[in-house]
User: Fold this.
Amino acid sequence: MKPVEKKIMLAAPPGDVWSFITDPAHFGDYVEGYAHGEVLSGNAVGPGSAFRWKAPLGPLRVGCEERVVEWDEGERVTYEGRAAGAGFRSEMRVKPVGTGAELTVGIAYDVPPGPAGAALDSLFIRRTVEDHVSRSLENLRRVFEGAESPRKNGAPSGISAVRSMYSMWGGTGMYDAAAALTFMFRGTHIRRRAVAALELKKGARVLDLCCGTGLNFAPLRRAAGAEGAITGLDYTRAMLDRAEARRDRRRWNNVTLVQGDAARLCFPDGCFDGVISVLGISAVTDFVPALAHAVRVCRNGGRVVVCDGHPFEGRLKPLNPLMVPVYRRLACWDSGKDVIGELRNRLSGFGVEWFNGGSIYVASGTKTTARRGVRRRKDKSPAAK
Assistant:
């Protein structure tokens, strides 16, 4: 095997670094190109834990699997696995240095035999691995320095654009009208359907992720009751100001508002009975870690629901060349994000309900510790609604 090793100093306690880098819920936060992650083992963290995901190899995206084979709590973890059929062994070591931590990442990988394999390694493989490790470490540095989300695959993250756009919508007070138009004036019905998919009981604790101006609060309160607890989180202060005004006007004392990044949730594991996001995830730059966190903070047996937009299907499909660019510009909407696919990989009993010619969906499922072998409910055609 050919080895690659790199180091970085992080301005964070070693324990914080260790718990972050070994938690698969955070892999999407720093592993360059990480996508479609899935835990294969009963335990997500610790000895024997195993994972599957997609990773970039130059212009390609290849399947990877790995398992923890050595675990020295707080100091060293070693993985063994295969990527695109080739074996690899990776190791991360955390060492205290002053008030911070030194992180060393090493990867050893198989090279095809013979002169052709050596040439391929020299010209392509080694450079790709080194670049992958360097970018991942840079992503970690940004996380612990509190910087904005890093550039992914050479493209700006867009998080500044999201802040600017939704500050405008919140500041002008026009968001509620824009949302009503997006739902083709069926917003009340569709939001009720989304909340119903949470299957809440009275007294439930709910996270409204990317809560915006608080349009979900009323149906959530009806479902969870006055004894329930609703936490609304949004990235943009102007949107939260509108949500706060709505809450105070209605005297909803069980609604708590938090400003934060959906891709970097700090709530404890399993602290909510349900998590919902309406017209939010598709605008989150790092949507994969956002979904991973949504599942992480939901208790086992709890429900995760995402209601979002989708290009038209069926007879309304000719409108897409007009509507997709408009929503990309005015809502930072990225129709290329596979939100449904990511949720399907993370939840049991998964299903999708479609509305408005396939332009709106409600995707939902249940968080369970073991998701392999679960029979999925077949999604209906988006053009059917």
Summary: The first strand starts at residue 2 and ends at 10. Residues 147-157, 372-379 have pLDDT under 50 and may be disordered. The chain is about 35% helix and 30% strand.
